Amino acid sequence: MKYTIVVLVENKPGVLNRVASLFRRRAFNIDSLTVGRTEVPDVSRMTIVVDSDELNIERLTAYLYKLVNVIQVNNLTTTPSVNRDLALIKVQASDENRAHVMQIVDVFRARIVDVTNNSLIVEITGDEEKIEGFIEVLRPWGIIEMVRTGIVSMARGGSSLLVESFPVSNFSRVAV
Amino acid sequence: MKKKLTGAQIVWESLVREGVEVVFGYPGGANLPLYDALPNYPIHHVLVRHEQGAAHAADGYARASRKVGVAIATSGPGATNLVTGIATAMMDSSPTVFITGQVMSKLIGYDAFQEIDVTGITLPITKHNYLVTDVREIGAVVREAFYIARTGRPGPVLIDISKDAQQNTTEWEYDDSPIQLPGYRPDLSPSRQDIQRAVEMIQSASRPVILAGNGVIASGAMDEVLDFAEHTNTPVAMTLLGLGGFPASHPLALGMMGMHGEAWVNMAIQEADLLIAFGMRFDDRVTGNLKTYAPKARKIHFDIDPSEINKNVPADAALIGDLGETLRQVLDYIQPCDHREWLETIQQMKSEASAYNILNHAGQKHLYAAHVIDGLWRTTGGDALIVTDVGQNQMWAAQYYKLDKSPRFISSGGLGTMGFGLPAAIGAKFGSPNAEVWAIVGDGGFQMTQAELATAAQEGLKINVAIINNGYLGMVRQWQEFFYDRRYSATPMRSPDFVKIAEAHGLTGLRVTRRADIEATIQKARQIEGTVLVEFRVEKEDCVYPMVPSGADLHNMIRRPVPSMVFEEEEQNEAE
After folding, report:
1. pLDDT tens, B173-229?
2. Can you tell me the mean pLDDT for B60-82?
3. Nearest by CB to B307, which of A10, A25, A62?
4. Which of B3, B115, B299, B500 sees the fewest Cβ atoms within 10 Å?
5. What's the CATH code of the domain at A40?
6. Which of B183, B99, B187 is nearest to B146 (CA)?
7. Which residue in A10, A46, A65 has the most chain B C-beta atoms within 10 A of its own C-beta, making it the best mutation to test that interface?
8. Number of domains present in the structure of chain A
9. Residue-level pLDDT at B574
10. B320-378: per-residue pLDDT in tens?
11. Are residues A124 and A143 in the same domain?
12. CATH number 3.30.2020.30 given to B357-553+560-575
């Protein structure tokens, strides 16, 4: 099953390498990994989607906490949250099919961000399901190139993930 | 008050502040500024013969003193030569700091002469590491490094410092404010609930066994473990690195567990209804086949490292935190237990095993390693600081040198690093100057780092090296005997004349070939000034028994053929 793990790390050189290296070393498969800045200047946030099981996610969480630069690890898999992936899709668009493609873009509430005589670049954001659906519908028209950012995730509700105190409770949950 | 200092000076100033008195190292192009500044500081530098030796010596120092050991190397090959030693310290949670020189910061990334990405290489074998290219960061980084190395679950930290950062100057003064590491909290402790849960399990057990590991010694929790064991009448099995964590002479001491553990210890674990693990990580050498491991037992796991819980063996209760502190809390709730029946069962298994013990045979004809270690134990009153290499010598040392204290046994457990013994013994002697240090090594491992004899000679160090020479890479040969139809591929080893090797270094070499000479020669070695090498020419094809084959069930041990029967048969053959 796919798990969405949000890792808050110190914004320092080499931290991405430490995290990625941990996944390799402990033989976890990363589905997607994104990293970016947060509301706190010194803190970066990674959203990592990993294919695993409950026991191994607990192991992974404990290993992540062993990295000195990792401040906090949250498993958002079952937390009500907003998940967004962004895709840029360059699709063939000749005079004959351009209208069809633009119709599909409209239906999915995507946006056209670049136009040439025979192609369009379409930008779409949404959860994984929506983007997969969009790609499937576009595919027959001829996808020239595609790039996706990978999932970013944020829990619903009024509070920030980054808690002041250290989440010791995460550790005691490790025990059965 | 702020002083204008070079980066190199800040390194040494900081080491002095951390209480460092000795460092092990090797100079080179990229750490020249460090070495140039060194003579002005009250720190003794031990010049090793290979950087691996420096790493093991720092590790040995740390384990003997429970202070942070420090090794220094230059960039490129100097740094890569440390790698085996860093990995050894990582696997055995040894508090160490490694400082490497790096090429000028403007050359980093351009494949400069002797440039290597040492922080990249050591990422998975350090607790944490740093690349410093700005002189203003050095002071803070050294402080953090020592703090990380010695707190929580200890481990190696590496600091790679570019040559320009060592040369440049900055205004510096010692900062003694609390260290701020938002993602590093070594001070975890178990909840009241966790403790209650464990106490209930302990109180209701009828066949409990304590598994004491390296964490007992790392935490300095020997007294608490003793209290706990006596209070609950629970027998104590030890891992290799846990030896000395509980007195071997105590009636509740079982001995070593695992692949070469005593038969009754492994049987007790397999029969137990509760395992109480103190600072050990259920390594495969300890558990054998996990599917059949301690099938009747619930498990309580005490560890300071949350990632060890449920890693190999699922825990029914987990207490995360410093062992000594946690045990003091647990003891508040514990009522005395009586496990007489269980202890008698174990005693029964123990007496049955004595027939297999080579020491219980009076025959004088054969020189077994067991006799050597036993002789060493007797002669030194069981109070030597034993540093082993890896292989048969290590297992025999663990089985026959009965330890009542710690730290008294230093060995490469997790990584199993051959060549560890001699350099680690040198480090251990600096870490514990009043201890009688004996390195117990094999003919193979000794020759891997034999060059460090020159280090011991140059330092005028008094250590003793017992070479258990059986003319083979003995442990590999043993596996070939048991599992590869005795095809001794690449294991016979011709050694140099070890006595002459010692003499070439201006040291004393002694040789023992007869069982009757063991104790007198050891006694002689102890009295000679300076490092002494004693070569024991032991039985060539002796094995370490019992043995649980790799991956086999813990109770399926290969036992030693009963010695009295073997010897009688031999004598009969001779008579014919």
Report:
1. 999 899 989 899 898 999 999 999 999 999 999 999 999 999 999 999 999 999 999
2. 98
3. A62
4. B500
5. 3.30.70.260
6. B99
7. A65
8. 2
9. 67
10. 999 999 999 999 999 999 999 999 999 999 998 888 888 887 677 889 999 999 999 99
11. yes
12. no
CATH number for the domain harbouring residue A143? 3.30.70.1150
Please check whether residues A65 and A119 belong to one and the same domain: no
Prediction ipTM score: 0.92
Indicate whether A146 and A160 sit together in one domain.
no
Provide the angle, in degrees to the nearest 10, between the axes of the packed helices B323-331 and B192-204. Answer: 70
Q: A-B interface: how many C-beta pairs under 8 angstroms?
A: 68
Contacts of B320 in chain A (CB under 8 A): 171-172, 174-175
Q: What is the pLDDT of residues B320-331, one digit of tens each?
A: 999 999 999 999
Nearest chain B CA: its distance from A129 CA (Å): 34
> Mean pLDDT over residues A120-138, rounded?
96
CA distance B204 to chain A (A): 19
A71 contact B CB<8A: yes
The DSSP output letter for A86 is E
**Spans of all domains in chain B:** 3-172, 192-351, 357-553+560-575
A96 and A51 within one domain: no
Q: Which residues contact B485 (CB under 8 A, 6 or more apart)?
A: none
Using a CB-CB distance cutoff of 8 angstroms, which residues of chain A are in contact with residue B133? none
Q: A13 and A71: one domain?
A: yes
Residue type, B214: N
Place of tokens 């400069």: B112
Neighbours of B541 (CB within 10 A): 13
B192-351 maps to CATH 3.40.50.1220: yes
pLDDT at A170: 39
What dotted CATH number matches B3-172?
3.40.50.970
Strands B298-303 and B274-278, sheet pairing: parallel
Question: Where in the sequence is the domain holding A111, given as residue range(s)?
Answer: 84-152
- CA nearest neighbour of B310 among B277, B267, B271, B285: B277
Q: Give the active site residues of B.
A: 51, 113-114, 163, 475
Do A102 and A74 reside in the same domain of the chain? no
Residue type, B159: I
